[in-house]
Amino acid sequence: MNYSAQIKVGGDAKSLFECFSPEGMQKERSNYKLKKTKNGIVFDIKATDATAFRATAGMITQLLAVYEKMGKIK
Predict the structure, then answer these.
(1) Cα-to-chain-centroid distance, residue 6
(2) CA nearest 45: which of 34, 54, 32, 36?
(3) pTM of the model as a whole
(4) What CATH number is attached to the domain comprising 26?
(5) How far apart are CA 12 and CA 46, in angstroms?
(6) CA terminus-to-terminus distance, the chain
(7) pLDDT tens digits, the chain, 74 residues: what are they?
(8) Cβ-based neighbours of 12, under 8 Å, separated by 6 or more
(9) Strands (DSSP E) along 1-74, which ranges?
(10) CA-CA distances (angstroms) from residue 61 to 1, 9, 40, 54, 68?
């Protein structure tokens, strides 16, 4: 089976893209790409199995939580 999803995140597109582009990931079983939009960024996730999909989506959401907390520290 193949899995795919998009996670749309609103906010400062430039800042979000700069924070996440070094994390861009191409693995054997999953990958994601970033796209800038007017209002934020879009993570386009693709995976070959459910476990790889869950790991990639979980990693993205953990990084988003850190990004959000860092914004509150300012």
Answers:
(1) 9
(2) 32
(3) 0.83
(4) 3.30.310
(5) 24
(6) 43
(7) 999 999 999 988 888 888 877 655 667 899 999 999 988 999 999 999 999 999 999 999 999 999 899 887 75
(8) 40
(9) 3-10, 25-26, 30-37, 40-47
(10) 23, 10, 15, 10, 10
Domain around 48:
3-73
Tokens of 33: 């790409």
Q: Which of 63, 23, 26 is nearest to 48 (CA)?
A: 26
Encoded tokens for 22: 């070094």
Contact 74, 15 (CB under 8 A): no
If one counts the domains in the chain, the total is 1
